[in-house]
What we know:
Layout: E1 2-3, E2 36-37, E3 53-56, E4 59-62, E5 65-66, E6 79-81, H1 97-113, E7 118-122, H2 146-161, E8 165-171, H3 182-198, E9 204-209, H4 225-238, E10 244-245, E11 247-249, H5 256-261, E12 265-268, H6 277-281, E13 291-295, H7 300-312, E14 315-316, E15 318-319, H8 322-325, H9 340-349
Parallel strand pairs: 6-7, 6-15, 7-8, 8-9, 9-10, 11-12, 12-13, 13-14
Antiparallel strand pairs: 1-2, 3-4, 4-5
Amino acid sequence: MVWGPQAWIAGQEDSTNSEPKRQERTSGVRTRRELRVTEDSGGHPDRQEATTVAIAGRQWYLDGCLTYPGTRAEGLLMNVRMVNAVFEDRGRPDFDASANTSRFVARIPDYVAHGIRAFTICLQGGFPGYEGAVNSAFDPNGSLREDYLSRVKSVIDACDRARAAIILGCYYQRQAAILKDESALRAGVVNVVRWITGESFGNVMLDITNEYGHDGFTHPMLVSPKGQVELIRLAKESAPDLPVSTSRQGHKGLHSAVCEASDFVLVHFNRVPVEEIPELIAPLKTYGKPIMCNEDRKVGREGARAAEVCVANNCSWGLMAREVNQYHPPFRFDGHSDDPEVYSKLRELTTAPKEPRRFDATNLPRN
């Protein structure tokens, strides 16, 4: 596999048409599909129809096209947290992990039809509503488990077909202790990046740690900003064009070293009142990178308000419908019916206004 230059292009903010149809790309924004060729392909991309995600300045591009052109959410990436779409619990043989993933995959087109362009999944899942679950794609030494990866791959491929991106998380606070030490954490990041590149996934971004600094982590590397910067750089060394970040709870504040090392700024707004969101976003704009919330537990009217406020402040927003598909398996994946009010707002924010119908007086009957 031959790799080209980075797909992250600082400072460029051209616009063009985009989804849901494949449109002509913006000049100068190269997709990762174009930057990757196989040795025996004669120079042709090895995944010619693959969806690709890239960053130019503060804006998101899918297949080289600016997201949501002509809408209030232009250049953003509205998303939803679906970490338990690939859930398993090795202590619960009654839970059918493959069937769970298949139910989610079947609903991806409906989420996309209502404005979603990225889904967060995680190689260690999320809190399932009870303690003690054993849910990890990693072995103690940082190697990856094939059966878990097969479910993740099915989701990535389904999003590829739907022209959507994946925010792939590595470490989660209730599962990271499975890895035996910090050498295993480093190996885990390298193995994940090698898997992404080896599969030629162009629609994947990496989230190193879910809420770094959380007191549920036992490894200092997953708590300290210095450790996060090291893991981000390690991922970038392995795949320079892969968009990489790490997330933190918004009410705790983000560290400048982490924001500077990241390709995009990733924040959670669970505990942040809607009225306080703008003041938390404002200082993050100084980094000149896309700002994304990929976890907010507000639902219904409050969730719709949060989405609208984020868009107004040039920040992508992500729903976590925790009572629907985060907590208490079996998880439900009902498309926009997960939260009709939120998805109605997302569709409104990501749909270009129709041009007013012009009145033509030339054909009026004459007296």
